[in-house]
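Help! Submission page says 'invalid entity' but I think these are all valid:
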Amino acid sequence: MPVASFSFLLFVLVLTIVYYLIPSRYRWIVLLVASLLFYCSYGIYFILYMLFSSLVTYFGTILLHKTVLGYKAILSEAEKEKKKQLREELKKKKKRICFVTTITVLGIWIALKYANFIIHNFNLLLPEAKLPSMSWTVPLGISFYTLNLVSYLIDVYRNKYEPEKQYLRVLAYISFFPHIIQGPFNRYDDLGRQLKEEHRFSYQRLTEGMSRILWGYFKKLLIADKLGVIFGAINSSYAEQPMLYLLFATLLYGFYIYADFSGYMDIMCGISHLLGLKLAENFRQPYLAESVDEFWRRWHMTLGDWFKDYVFFSLSMSPAAYKVGNYCRKHWGDKAAKLIPGYIAMLFVWTATGLWHGADWKYVIWAYLNMLAIMYAMQFADTNQKWKERMHINDNSLVWKVFRIIRTYLFVSFFRIFSTSADVSAAVSYIRHLFSFFRFVPADLNGLFMGLKTSEAIAVLIGVIMLVIVDILKEKNLWQDVKVKCPLLIRNGILVFLIIMIILFAGGENDLIGGFLYEYF
Amino acid sequence: MNTSKAKTYIISAVSFAVMLAVSLLILGNLLEPISQSFYFNHDMQEIKDNDENVEMIFVGASRTARSFIPAIFEEEMGLDCVINAASSSQNIWGSYYQLKELLKDHHPRYVVLGVVENTLRSGLVQADLIVSDRLSGLNKLSFYWNCFTGTDKLYALRAYRFRDNLAKIKENRQQKAEAIARGYKDDSSQDMYYDDTGYICSNRSYKTGTIPIVTKKGFSLDLVRPKQLSYLEKIVQLCQEKGIRLFLVSGITTDMRLYCIDNYQGAVDWYHEFAKENGLVYHNLNYLMDREELFPDEMMSDYNHLNVQGAEIASRLYAQVLRKELKGENTDDMFYKDLEDLKKTVHRIVAVDADISFDPSDPSKATAKISSYQNEDVTPLYQIEVKYKDGSKETVVPWTADNEVSFLLKEKKGYTVTVRAKADRDDYLQAYQRYKY
């Protein structure tokens, strides 16, 4: 059931009505059923993988909890000398349970998503092996729900909260349809708790939710899909395009993917809001970031937080990291001791980030470019500060801020050439063409919009300007004020304008558009 | 929720709904171009206002819209008012809803439903839009609900339907004003225009030998769609309920279509059978006696439709057929028995086709297997000409009786191959087909 379709809108409408008619203690069941139906619409067999992974995780967390309870009872009665040994035993057992469960859940994901990648690289290393590739379909959303399950498991392992006793509630959390396909990643203690709470119907939530859904569809159907037409046309024939077109496409992609991904988030957060639930935000005005590091704290925030909490901190605060830190301090001083363990942890995080986005080396290279940019800034922070002082550059000046914002956008756009190309060699070829000054300015600039009509191009431009204005208002913490103080007529006028723009410009021939970009990750 | 908050929410919701409705209405009006429905709806309103007694209604697709002149039927059959409510590519369900709409205000004695070999096979949203412009109220809602699927339902919004006309708003307003100034008559200086109470008129005339094969899609029982058939049955039932006499007719098309459409006779037989089972009569005007003399290619405006001269002849002849039917007289002697019977009167080549293949190792070497449609008493001759990108032409195969010929091309792409045919005893071209590479 495509999100940008009438059947989905009808599904949400019926769900909302049924949800508020049912007594509140049963509403989570309504959400569970609706979510399973939604997921099954993409392929009924996909649900088997989700059920298996969630069952394994559920039993893993129950076993962890029972083990802890069991040892607590023994510890309360044990002698002082025995307690330390028992605690060590408990720690080892917990680790074993957590490890086996995590490996099983991750293993399913890795097998389904990365088997062919591993086989392909193995065959490259050992051509005589000639391992056959697998022909299975990767279940939609597996990259999202697997990490959600792992986060739930690890949180229970870390005693952050007790595990859920009812399996169906765990399933309701994992399968919750607004977040299963493209995220955001929501922690169990947040979303799981919300699913248990009572949510009364509120007209204000209804209007806010619907406005946000409308804004999401506007971003997706008007901005993203039209920019996608231009980007796709230039990217697919980049070898024949003049440099200006390639530059345009490279810079345009950022708005394309942002409108697409954040549009989806707005739709799903809006739907959740209708139902009285709050999903984690994934974006915080990412293109107003002044450094690549800051960009990644504003873009796909929940993924970044996941890797930070469950990979980066686990590695950088591990005993091995301390050992590395001590070694570095001994040989290279305090700065190295501070940075190098972090760099090693970052290497793992960014390798995982790259591979999470896709089973291809191009994603890894894209991730490493981002990582290197962040490492550079960390490594040369002092030097850069001295250089700024020498040049009398004021960090708070508007000109400097704008320069940094543009610079960050250029870096991020350039790195994305790898993630948007067919493979690494295509990316390198694209970059070569981009810098070859081949036909720098085309004879006819009309081709820049690649088949979009003038009215469509103007509509997209208006959409992008609106997107930028909203982001600037949010950055300056003015957005809530604007929404509250905006006169009714103007507010309704803007909503009517969004609807009319969608009616006039959305879709190709006779249809609303299909998929979202992050569905494929 | 306290009362004042509830009031605020209601005002907000209502104001939003009103703003949206008004905006869509204004936008739809601004974007809507002139169409034949613009004139048709005006004529229908005038007929209603003048309390004219509509005695006969035609419904169907373009062959009906362009074959039957209402004024001639009024004259020949002594009827007060005749309407041609057919429109281009009108689906059978469109005909049903169109008829239902007209029967809200009129009580005709006769309805003529135009049917062709693909009436029960096809469904086209664009065609449905023409019909929907002529409907109103619950009839229109029912039409959209039943006949438009999925996102096509958005076409109910005029702003969505005409959204491609954003750049033409000024032009649309100007054209509408000019049309109103002309008294709602379509511009008769155009090639094809709206003439009178639904009839679409064309002054174009085809020269024999210049109509290519457009499609060979044929008729078979498997292609009769249940939905389309159900609407045909609904039309029969509607007429029975209203006490209206229903006639089924197939309008004139070119010989080429009769020959090239697979199992054309199968379609004719099917309609005869259906008519018999439902107590109706069906006439295929293509089988009219002396059809070859009455409707040469010069009477056609294109491969499938009559021009104004042809429509005049067809209308008078069909009016005669209907007069006889109404008197209870047999009309079989006005028609050929079947397609084979008709073909015996055709002494020319009606169409030519070629299967052109290229040497895989050398694309400049081509072979054409030519086939043509004619009776056994006609010996065909073929010629092949190639036109290149630079405009130069070359006769690569001069007139020959061989139907498998080879020829050389100067270029690998960007050329057009024209295959022509004529009878060996005639000097004039009789058929041609063009292939672009």
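Support: the input was valid. A stray whitespace character was the problem, and the output above is from the cleaned input. The CA atoms of residues 117 and 236 of chain A lie 23 Å apart.
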